[in-house]
Amino acid sequence: MLAGISSNLLLEPKKRSSLAIELVVFHIDRVSFGIPMTKINRVISNVFIGEDFSLTQDVAILDLHDRLSGIEIADFNAIVIFTGENSQLYGIPIETAPILVSVPCDRIRTLPSDVRTDNPLGIASHIAIVTHEQSQLTIFILGD
After folding, report:
1. Strand partners, 79
2. What is the value of pTM for the model shown?
3. How deeply is 36 buried, as exposed, middle or buried, from its count of CB atoms within 10 A (0-12, 13-18, 19+)?
4. Which conformational region is residue 58 in: left (phi greater than 0), alpha (psi within -120 to 50 degrees), or beta?
5. Residues facing 42 on adjacent strands
6. How would you classify the pairing of strands 40-45 and 124-132?
7. Where are the beta strands (DSSP E) in the chain?
8. Which of 34, 22, 13 is nearest to 111 (CA)?
9. In the list 26, 71, 86, 139, which could disulfide-bond 34, CB 3.0-4.6 Å?
10. What is the pLDDT of residues 44-60, one digit of tens each?
11. Cβ contacts of residue 6 below 8 Å, gap of 6+?
């Protein structure tokens, strides 16, 4: 569940349109992914990873670049660390700095379960289409 979003999506459209969720959005292989800000533990620059091993201790690394293209990420500039199922910490290496996007709840839709299970990623639970910097942005929202 997305920190109360599912229940918010059941509200009348007029009530939903005034609600928004902040997503930390990053791009991997021309695909935009978002994680609710409430689930973000931290974003670590690769400069600091070697200095403090405790920053990445007990973090399961998910290489989405490898899952999308079949090629492990070669150069990453940061790791987005978020809390997933059962309070497990996950880290996603990313090439460029993430952005913060406010997404109105009425723009978020739940992905059908067959799309989630038949998809090679299988980790996105919701999708949102928003206008950001004068272009249309489709964001796959990572779920638990």
Report:
1. 44, 93
2. 0.78
3. buried
4. left
5. 81
6. unpaired
7. 20-28, 31-36, 40-45, 59-61, 78-83, 89-94, 99-104, 108-110, 124-132, 135-142
8. 34
9. 139
10. 887 666 655 555 568 88
11. 110
